[in-house]
UniProtKB/TrEMBL annotation:
This is LacI family DNA-binding transcriptional regulator. It comes from Actinacidiphila polyblastidii. PANTHER family: HTH-TYPE TRANSCRIPTIONAL REPRESSOR PURR-RELATED, LACI-RELATED TRANSCRIPTIONAL REPRESSOR. Transmembrane segments: none annotated. InterPro entries: HTH_LacI (IPR000843), LacI/GalR-like_sensor (IPR046335), Lambda_DNA-bd_dom_sf (IPR010982), Peripla_BP_I (IPR028082).
């Protein structure tokens, strides 16, 4: 009699067949489902069929139904979204939009592990997803995982160098403009920028937006008012001396953590926010921005909309621009850290 505690044998999957036959999961799927027009050589077909026989693979009934009726699954592969301060916002936006159109979202969080990433993509291909969203926790260029070439794909919060895969990304330039405009609207004219030391779309885009907003207001760009710092609380704290030496009345910080460090340094120097120096952050990291005293004016990264629009592009409901990208505006969030300067 079989021991009740004995584990049931694991079902053979398409991935097992693909590994045994030395082909991709997509090739196994085409052979199993006898897909018309699939360009698969006789030798590869024979290896797949032999592996199916040797391993005892039995196609899943659900998968067969999906082939006949069209998959109602979408995939989302993320490198670290679930463990970041913006936990779940991209996933939430993608899930809401997928559900709105009758799809279920399959989510894999790989923590940047390449093997886990390849396994996740293979699993989604095996489930015959309608397409895959590939997302990163900060906006950057990525090398495309090989498996994504086997499905319709959209990049979210990242982009590829060649631009052949659609990408949905935050409009960093727009965000830099909006942050600077908040200070300009209060009469500030000598505005500092504490940027990041990291080369990135955020570094370059927010600086460009800052310069554009100054130009719109008829203010000449002064490179002495721009300084790079580590994008954390310590970086903001260490920037205070340089900012005070430049007699700025307002500061745009690369992110909310930098702004938090700036608050600490200004307080030590006896300077008040916003009476002596107005401060604007970036990210709208609620645990920081809304709870500083005074609450921090900032610019929000549109994570929810990145996920939502990513699904719309994947389903063909929205079209990217000629460069393959869809840019999502970064909205300003005004709180109490900006005001008319006491003296200019």
């Amino acid at each position: 009699m079989k021991d009740r505690n004995e584990a049931a044998p694991r079902a053979v999957t398409m991935r097992d067949v693909a590994k045994a036959a030395g082909v991709s999961v997509s090739t196994v799927s085409h052979v199993v489902n006898d897909k018309k027009g699939a360009r698969i050589g006789k030798d590869a077909r024979d290896r797949v069929r032999q592996a199916i026989q040797d391993l005892g693979y039995r196609p899943n009934a659900m998968a067969k139904n999906l082939v006949k009726g069209g998959s109602r699954f979408l995939g989302l592969v993320a490198d670290a979204i679930a463990s970041t301060p913006f936990a779940g916002q991209i996933i939430h936006g993608a899930q809401d939009e997928a559900w709105r159109h009758g799809y279920v979202l399959l989510v894999a969080n790989t923590e940047g592990n390449n093997d886990a990433e390849a396994e996740a993509i293979a699993m989604m291909l095996e489930h015959k997803v309608r397409g895959i969203l590939y997302s990163t926790w900060y906006h950057r260029e990525v090398a495309m995982p090989a498996g994504l070439a086997e499905a319709d794909s959209v990049l979210v919060n990242c982009f590829s160098a060649h631009g052949r895969v659609p990408a949905v990304v935050p409009d960093e330039v727009d965000g830099g403009r909006e942050a600077t405009r908040m200070l300009l609207a209060e009469g500030h004219r000598r505005i500092g920028l504490v940027n990041t030391t990291t080369a990135s779309p955020a570094h370059d885009g927010r600086l460009l937006g800052y310069r554009q907003a100054l130009a719109e207001a008829g203010i000449a760009f002064d490179p002495d008012l721009v300084m790079d710092a580590h994008p954390d609380q310590e970086g903001g704290y260490e920037s205070v001396g340089r900012l005070l030496a430049q007699r700025v009345t307002g500061v745009f910080c690369h992110n909310d953590r930098v702004a938090m460090g700036l608050y600490d340094g200004l307080r030590e120097k006896g300077a008040r926010v916003p009476e002596d120096i107005a401060v604007v952050g970036f990210d709208n990291q609620e645990v920081i921005a809304a709870h500083l005293r005074p609450p921090l004016s900032t610019v929000a990264l549109p994570h929810y909309d990145l996920g939502r629009v990513g699904v719309r592009v994947l389903l063909g409901l929205d079209e990217p621009a000629a460069d393959g990208r869809v840019t999502i505006a970064c909205p300003p969030v005004r709180r109490a850290s900006v005001s008319t300067p006491s003296s200019i």
